[in-house]
């Protein structure tokens, strides 16, 4: 009897802490999921069954970022892993070819179940999330008491986006963005944007664009 092999999954995000958090979610499911090593801001370089695209802190429009993954011939199926469930966003991603649109509120077991359904050829879209934070995984600033949304706002501020650009990127109203900024500033003890950027740079909120894979460094 042939043993069923684990699904090969690539984790796509520019933040090392986010990728590490996702990897930890799959730690108890190694018989079902094999995580392919990924490097921040690099194309997937190994053949995989599924690329799990985590939208945290992505400054490019999601459709453009997902399209780059969809075009990769080494990726069989692409799944968006996100907090933002506006119908237009879901419809655009699936129309472009995404095989799943999964909520960050899914417990690890349900996330694995959903990936297995995608691997079997089913289009899987999670219900709209209602919880305040993702169930698992990790994000910059979590240990500082920042919620997922507060952290993403600080990440985008650190990347240089304006309030209007953050609102567009996160599909939030300008007032909601201002509210998240105020609450985040209180928690991290800053009063101005320049201070928030400096704090973000010191606390891992700059995307790991220049992080090197040790295997790529000549001995």
From TrEMBL:
SMART domains reported in the protein's UniProt record: HTH_LUXR
Species: Micropruina glycogenica
InterPro entries in UniProt: CheY-like_superfamily, Sig_transdc_resp-reg_C-effctor, Tscrpt_reg_LuxR_C, WalR-like
Residue stretches making up the HTH luxR-type domain: 139-204
PANTHER family with a match to the protein in the record: TWO-COMPONENT RESPONSE REGULATOR
Domain of life of the native organism: Bacteria
Molecular-function annotations in GO: DNA binding
The protein's name in its UniProt record: Helix-turn-helix transcriptional regulator
Gene Ontology terms describing biological process: regulation of DNA-templated transcription
Record's keyword terms, sorted: DNA-binding
CDD domains in the cross-refs: LuxR_C_like
Gene3D superfamilies: 3.40.50.2300
């Amino acid at each position: 009897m042939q043993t069923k092999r684990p699904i090969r999954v690539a984790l796509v995000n520019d933040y090392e802490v986010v990728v590490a958090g996702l990897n930890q979610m799959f730690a108890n499911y190694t018989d079902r999921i094999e995580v392919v090593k990924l490097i921040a801001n690099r194309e997937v370089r190994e053949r995989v069954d599924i690329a799990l695209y985590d939208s945290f802190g992505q400054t490019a429009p999601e459709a453009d970022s997902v399209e780059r993954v969809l075009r990769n011939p080494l990726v069989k199926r692409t799944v968006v892993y996100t907090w933002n469930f506006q119908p237009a966003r879901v419809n655009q991603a699936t129309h472009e070819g995404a095989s799943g649109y999964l909520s960050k509120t899914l417990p690890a077991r349900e996330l694995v179940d959903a990936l297995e359904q995608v691997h079997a050829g089913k289009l899987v879209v999670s219900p709209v999330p209602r919880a305040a934070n993702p169930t698992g995984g990790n994000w910059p600033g979590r240990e500082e008491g920042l919620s997922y949304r507060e952290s993403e706002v600080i990440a985008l501020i650190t990347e240089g986006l304006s309030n209007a650009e953050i609102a567009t990127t996160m599909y939030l109203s300008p007032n909601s963005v201002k509210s998240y900024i105020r609450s985040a500033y209180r928690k991290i003890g800053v009063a101005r944007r320049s201070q928030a950027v400096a704090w973000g740079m010191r606390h891992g909120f700059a995307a790991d664009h220049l992080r090197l894979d040790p295997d790529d460094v000549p001995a």
